[in-house]
Amino acid sequence: MSITVNGKTIEHIKKETISDLLKRMHYTFPLIIVKINGKLIKKKDYNETVILDKSEVKVIHLISGG
Amino acid sequence: MNLKQLETIKQQSQKKFDSYKASLHVCTGTACVANHSFSLIETLKKELKKRDLEKEILIVPTGCNGFCEQGPIMVVQPDGIFYQKLNEKDIGDIIEQHLINGKPVKRLFYKHPTKKTPIEQMKDIPFFGKQQLLAMRHRGQIDPEQINDYIRMGGYQTAYNVLSKKKAEEVIQTVTKSGIRGRGGGGFPTGLKWNSCRDAVKKTGNIPYVICNADEGDPGCFADRSIIEADPHSVIEGLIIGAYAIGAHEGFVYIRKEYPLALKRLQKAIQQARDQNILGKNILETNFDFDITIHRGAGAFVCGESTALMASLEGKPGEPHAKYVHSTEQGYKNMPTVLNNVETWANVPLILQKGSDWFANIGTGDVTDNAWGGSTGTKVFSLVGDVRNTGLVEVPMGITLREIIYDIGGGIPKDKKFKGVQTGGPSGGVLPESKLDLPVDFDSLSDAGSMMGSGGMVVMDEDTCMVQLAKYFIDFLKEESCGKCTPCREGLTAMSEILAKISEGKGTDEDIALLEEYGETMKVASLCGLGQTAANPVLSTITYFRDEYEAHIKDKTCPAGQCKPLVTYIIDPEKCTGCTLCARNCPTNCITGEAKQVHRINQDECIKCGTCKTVCNFDAVEVN
Amino acid sequence: MTEEQKITVTIDGKEVSVDKDTTILSAANSIDIFIPTLCHSELVEPYSACRLCLVEIDNGRKKRLVTSCNYPIRKPITVKTKSERVKKHRKNILEMMLARWPNVKIIKDMAAFHGIKTPRYTSPLQDPQENACVLCGLCVRACEEDIWESALNFANRGPEREVMMGYGENIPQCEGCETCMSICPTHAIDMDKEDPNNPFDADLMRKAGMKLTREMVLLDDSQCRMRKVGTAHLTEIMDEYDLLPVQNYRFGSHTETKNIASDVFLKNYLTQGKPDGCWQGCTMACAKTADAFTLKTGPYKGDQVVVDGPEYETVGGCANMGIFDPEFVLEFNFYCDTYGLDTISTSTGMSFYMEMFEYGILNKERCGGLDLQFGNSDAALTFMHRMAAGDKDEFIQVASKGIRRVKDWLIKKGWGDKQIIEDCGMESKGLEYSEYVTKESLAQQGGYGMTLKGPQHDEAWLIFMDMVNNQIPTFQDKAEALHYFPMWRTWFGLNGLCKLPWNDVEPENNAETDEPAKVPGHVQNYVDYQNGMTGGNVDKEGLILQSERAYNWQRAMNVWMGRGTRNDDWIPYRSMGPVTKKEYESRKDRYDTQFVEQLGFTKQEVEKMSIEEKIQKLYEYRQNRYQKLMDAVYYRRGWTPNGIPTPQKMKQLGFSDKKMLSMLQKKIDQDQEKGLNSWGGIYGDDEQPPTDKDQYWLEW
Predict the structure, then answer these.
(1) DSSP codes joined into one string, C570-598
(2) What range defines the domain where residue A55 resides?
(3) Average predicted confidence (pLDDT) for chain B
(4) pLDDT on residue C167
(5) pTM for this structure?
(6) How far is residue B339's CA from residue B423's CA, in Å, rounded to a whole number?
């Protein structure tokens, strides 16, 4: 049971939501875009969207720099 | 402070109160204060001290007693003796004759208007006869600046019961089932309002607020002022319960700047409540936090409108905005907000104490299945104008206008004819004699073209010109309009122009139709309640007094003799005795005549002030 | 998963499906149904004051009139925009407006269109001017919502209502941006002076600026918080992602970073609490100051001063020196400003000296008595004060010229291992590195190394795109990014513009665009800016071309002066990988895994290797990758394998200067003879260099 996050394969955790995944990956930056299997997920749905096994997750950080 | 301590204070206060031989309840509502009731109290204190009676006789400065026409008022308890129109010279007599020698001072009693007999007991006075006190339940009994007095009457026990034993949903249900509708004029079922706020809180997780609207801008209306001056804690207790019901922890009282006495008493009451842990953190040792901030208005009638009030509270200009999304969802700082009127809040503790059924049984209609199905409870009215007994009354909904004006109000002074009664302030309408038997409730009044409003009731006699009256209210609204939206700002200007023309005898046949047309546009197209109801004075007077308008336009006359350009003052040569009283009092010296000769008014100089008519003892001045 | 349901409404018989809370006016416009308005504009929030946009809605139970500009659609209602009721009241409203403003063109036109000629009453407020103010409030809203100055507002109420600046005076908050003038529908507002910048199309620029300001107003708080803390918000983020330079870039995070996180400054030191822009009118306003800060050292010891900062780089630089004291950060910031020192160069320099001190290459004797250990804030400040005072100590004299000179000096003195010195001193082309740990991002190594000026992130900042997002996995991808971003980013400097409005705030829908990292909506702002200012007709690609020309010309100048070759794009190994055992051990799992995943070793083989072996193998692997990156980048940029811009590329860019072209050709010919025109990377069996063709540029 695995998923990919930004191309990297990691363990799939049952019932893990996007919010949970971001916590697991320590992705704390606020300006991010999350796409699952190419579909954009809106920020307000992070708490409720569950990631299924074999999903391709992209967490794009839009970070500006100093 | 917990329930036990509350009980203890109640008992101790009652004990202390009972230890006095008698208590003198002196009215210190603003009207009686204007009639020097404070100095009456000072004199009383001095005189009692002189006679060493301080430990036996208690002075209780109370809020408004209601019978403002007869102020200053003092009620002696436990006898229930009602003294009125007092001045300092009377104090000695009261103390000597009544308090020491047991003989009440009859000359200071209220005299029956027709029978002229002196009435000793307050309850026997017709003014108080048909009233039922809910919001004003502590009328004339407690000192508003002593929280212990409020507790002595059982105050804050209901709040404690609610906070410690009831669920928020229960509270909302009780209020809904009671059928109480907003006393500020909107008449929206209060329970429904609280419920939608709670729903919004649950949906969004946002923190709500409660607000008490004490802006009371209607000219001639002082119900809210009097409630705060007399019993500020009833409002505070109501706010605590309301805040608990929706989950708010901060409340505001928006009080108009022009109410210094009410403000002072409210500030004191809030501070005393805080000192007793009835406001603040862990109220009455429950785990509910709530506190109240007072915000003063700055002289704008439009800030009585809820969205403008909230804008003002946020530090922005007092301008309303669209209410397509209700304030219960997005109100103060875009958070769910419950805003209610002073009188509504004052009723809340009573409803929770006595139950929804008890409240619903007072008033009219049936609210069992439909919160809009009736008008339950009572309403406080400030009865003013051409009526004998002006003052503050609280009556059950459903009582007729006739009962209020004649049985309570004592009818029209100087035996003049009743012409109309205005309810609802500038947003309401004038109802004629044919409507006197209308029951006073939300729906009957608005169906007739007026509205309940916040409680102003202005009685007008035959000497009132309805065109002038309409213009008075339109001009008031024109100055108070925030000016944001076209139909209100320009519509009021247009109406003011047209009414001025009519009252100057320059009106045309199309003017009435234009007023009606613009009135409708203002009603449906204005942004807020001020604009939407602004045309009511005009539209209702056109409905019920159309002939008066037509007289101004077609005949160029003012039937009530008020519109100066249209009236002429003439001395009747058959009645004039040449006493020269009119000539001597005329401010423009336009009356000529020798002593004992018929006098003449020079029409070119006459400013139609009416002084000659007022001073003439022979009824020789006619108004055409 | 919650899907937003669309709501279908019927407007004048036509159906349209919209998202919840869409206004009726928006919905109507989307199906080409026109509703008249006066106080409405797409650039500001709806106001519903004029009431012209009234429509009749029917929710199935009752009908009523509502203003379409701000009525939120939440149920499937039926809308009529021209019912008899609507027409009647709209006419009356127009009649009232005409009575007050009989000569204002837009009102006259609308009234005439609705059949109104003469109002049926005379208004005592009649204003006969053609450019009368019609109280629409567009100027007020624009100044508040899109310029964020609120310089003008309504005063008085009812018939006295009018628009003015505070107390009827010209107040300094008014920047003269003319936004109110441009949005006013009746030309009621005038400027008494012409814009001295004489823009070609001010409106084009203005709209871009208003859009940006609106984004700042609505989104900054939930995005980068520039107005609250400025760039210092990056400190805690870099630490979180293991990218904060600690102890001369040896490590990427520290347990004490929380002491210098942005909230510490916001709560305790940034006393103004107001955004502080570099120039009046900047709404990003990310500069911060700490007022009344008492200095503890130096010539102004004991004075209360205003400290302008701190920016992220300053904070990062202090972490680099192993110092996590916010008061040091402020003192350091102040004295760098006072002495005219760049905080980056100073802190990166000192970090290097501190590491050398740790290895005994420098010591108290050699450092003029300074105890330059990591974390020694006193020593750091003393060093700066002595340097500024012109102290004649040899070390201080050399260190005042930066890392490159110190490296040469140490090597000349024979103190320490040359390799360690070269690899630990974080400079390239003589410029000190700025405060990001690039060890795990090949793209950023290129971003720092393959620049014109040295390792300053002005040209490219690709760490997240590369390391975290994994959006540029191949060499080609990286080369493409190392083409676009440096070209785009240097464009700002060429035009004298700040780059922060490009991506330190983003449009709400940026996530849904094709290339969100480029923030295309904001690139368009700059296109509009330039076209609006100059009257030109450039597009997004055109801006890149402008940059490319300047960039390649500069590279040619470098070549002419004897630099600008592959060798000059060298970077110290500290920026590429672990130099020391301590560094390897701090990321052991990550590096060991890389041996398996990228270098093709088995787990057992890795376990058998010593640390020194692993460091060496990793070194070779990463150096080779850097060389391969250079190959790809040079090829993409149109340069030779030695990094020389080809005359063919220069001609493509539009250059025809014979002297420059022949100079380049000469250099290329010389390189050809020396065999330098071949790729620098070593390619395996399944790998390809950018091209097999020899002297590939001849075909361009």
Answers:
(1) ---GGGTS--SHHHHHHTHHHHHHHHHHT
(2) 2-61
(3) 94
(4) 87
(5) 0.80
(6) 22
The verdict on a CB contact (< 8 Å) between A61 and C1 is no
Contact (CB<8Å) A26/C240: yes
Q: Report yes or no on B145 lying in a domain.
A: no
Q: Residue C161: its chain B contacts at CB < 8 A?
A: 482-484, 489
The pLDDT score that the predictor gives to residue C542 is: 95
Strands (E), C486-555: none
* pLDDT computed for residue C2 by the predictor: 43
- Domain of residue B442 covers 377-461
Q: How far apart are CA C539 and CA B371, in angstroms?
A: 63
Helix (H) or strand (E) holding B84: none
Question: B489, C160: Cβ pair inside 8 Å?
Answer: no
Work out the angle between the directed axes of helices B168-178 and B342-354 (0-180°, nearest 10): 100
Contacts of A8 in chain C (CB under 8 A): 470
Please report which confidence band the pLDDT of residue B146 belongs to, taking 50, 70 and 90 as the band edges. very high
Q: Is B77 buried (19+), middle (13-18) or exposed (0-12) by CB count in 10 A?
A: middle
Q: Are B422 and B456 in contact (CB under 8 A)?
A: yes
Q: Model confidence over B253-312: pLDDT tens digits? A: 999 999 999 999 999 999 999 999 999 999 999 999 999 999 999 999 999 999 999 999
CATH number for C7-82 (one of 3.30.565.10, 3.20.20.450, 3.40.630.30, 3.10.20.740): it is 3.10.20.740
* Residue ranges in chain C whose pLDDT is less than 70: 1-4, 272-274
Per DSSP, the three-state class of C280 is coil
Instruction: Write down the pLDDT at residue C272.
Output: 65
- Of 3.40.50, 1.10.599, 1.10.3470, 1.20.950, the CATH number of C487-509+517-699 is 1.10.599
A66 in a structural domain: no
- Both tokens of B334, joined, read 């875009």
Kindly report whether the peptide bond that precedes residue C310 is cis, defined as omega within 30 degrees of 0.
yes
Contact status of C240 with chain A (Cβ, < 8 Å): yes
DSSP state, residue C68: T
Show the tokens assigned to C624.
């080779």
- Collect the ranges in chain A with pLDDT lower than 70: 64-66
Q: In chain C, helix, strand, coil percent, each to 5? A: 50, 10, 45
In CATH, what number is assigned to the domain containing residue A49?
3.10.20.30
Which of B341, B358, B96, B97 minimizes the C-alpha distance to B213? B341
Question: Using a CB-CB distance cutoff of 8 angstroms, which residues of chain B are in contact with residue C50?
Answer: 485-486
pLDDT at C531: 96
